[in-house]
Design brief:
This protein has 288 residues and is of the alpha/beta class. The protein contains nine helices and seven strands. Strands 2-1-3-4 form a four-stranded parallel β-sheet, sandwiched between helices.
Length: 288
């Protein structure tokens, strides 16, 4: 990469601490704010080249993009001349596509448990929407959601899958943070994640060289329509595409319960079948 790279993490990467393991490649991984400011300043002092900053969100943390831009604006103007802000690592459309690709490798009779760290109410609601799309355009009867550090947590989410009749549960990570369940697979392999990161950096550097656009102005508007304000009058244009990167083959029947549901009261904390305790863990490898 023709620049020093800084990945900025939020709740989808445990404030950046989960990024090194997820990518298997060396780059600076920091949280937004003072840590980002200090890191970029140090890199600028240590090199004559550019510094490319990448907001490491998968689409569920648009405030991270805007906050990253505001932090970079706090740099001295002459220092910002060598700073480029790339587009975010992924959108919810990317996330949906990556999850669907992972789900395609899981036996159809398994339940899918889409897991990610909890954010705010709107970020969490986005995960339920993504899981719904994975179910809608997939072949698995049961697709549930679990929030690391939230409710339902991964153990409770797995219990829910078993209560709905699943014999095996395949955890699918929808973030850079492992869900903490046996045999959970990452959203992307380290090699694939590094390839996406390289593409974001290369695109940002080409844009900066050809147009002089450092990407900061556009990023400041990233969270404008997130949350309660994300309602539009008739005829309002979003300014972004809503293609999901998948075929819209709708199912004829809708027997699956919506992921947003009430959980039955029970005291079981281990992941066990409601009928009997299984000898082996019911959370099975997606490829088993």
């Amino acid at each position: 990469m023709d620049a020093a790279v800084v990945g900025v993490g939020g709740h989808e990467s445990a404030d950046g601490t989960a990024l090194p393991a997820a990518f298997g490649t060396r780059f600076a991984a920091v949280r937004c704010g003072r840590e980002l400011h200090q890191c970029v300043s140090a890199l600028l002092r240590g090199t004559d080249g550019r510094v490319c900053v990448v907001p490491m969100t998968l689409g569920r943390d648009p405030r991270l993009v805007a906050d990253t831009a505001r932090t970079l604006l706090a740099l001295p103007a002459d220092a910002r001349e060598r700073v480029v802000l790339a587009e975010q690592f992924g959108t919810t459309e990317h996330l949906t596509g990556w999850l669907r690709a992972a789900a395609s490798r899981v036996p159809a009779e398994h339940a899918l448990l889409v897991t990610a760290p909890a954010g705010d109410a709107y970020d969490d609601a986005e995960l339920f929407c993504v899981a719904r799309l994975v179910w809608q355009y997939g072949r698995h009867r049961i697709v549930e959601v679990a929030l690391v550090g939230g409710d339902p947590d991964p153990v409770r989410g797995a219990e829910r899958c078993l209560a709905l009749g699943a014999a095996h549960v395949a955890p699918l990570s929808a973030s850079f943070v492992p869900p903490g369940l046996p045999d959970a697979l990452p959203l992307l392999s380290p090699a694939a994640a590094a390839q996406v990161l390289r593409a974001r950096v290369d695109t940002a550097l080409r844009r900066a060289r050809s147009t002089g656009d450092d990407g900061i102005a556009a990023a400041l508007r990233a969270a404008d329509h997130h949350g309660t304000s994300h309602s539009h009058d008739d005829g309002h244009e979003h300014g972004h595409e809503h293609s999901h990167g998948h075929e819209h083959e709708h199912r004829d029947e809708h027997t699956h319960p919506h992921p947003r549901h009430q959980h039955p009261d029970h005291d079981v904390r281990g992941v066990a079948s409601p009928a009997a305790t299984r000898a082996a863990s019911p959370v099975a490898s997606p490829v088993s």
